[in-house]
Amino acid sequence: MTGRHDPSGAPDGRILPEDTDLLDIVAQYARSFLESPRPVRARAPERLGQVLGGDLSKTGNAQLSTVRRLIEAGESGLLASGDSHSFGYVIGGALPIGIASDWLVSLWDQCSAVYETSPLASVAEQVCERWLVDLFGLPTDTVMGLTSGCTTANLACLAAAREQQLHEAGWKVNEQGMRRSPPLTVLVGRHTHVSGLRCLRLLGLAGEIGWVDAGDDGRMDARHLAELADRAPGGLIVCGQVGSTDCGSVDPLVEIAAITHAHGGWLHLDAAFGMWAAASPALRPRLRGLELADSWACDGHKWLNTPYDCGIALCAHPAAFADAVRFSADYLQTTERTGRDPMDHRVEISQRARALTLWAVLHHEGRDGIATIVERNCEAAHELADILTREPGIGLLAPVTLNQVLLHIGDDDHTRQVVGTLNDNGACWVTPTTWTGHDAVRISVSNWQSGRESAEATASAFLRAHRDRLSTAER
Question: H or E segment at 47?
Answer without folding.
Answer: none
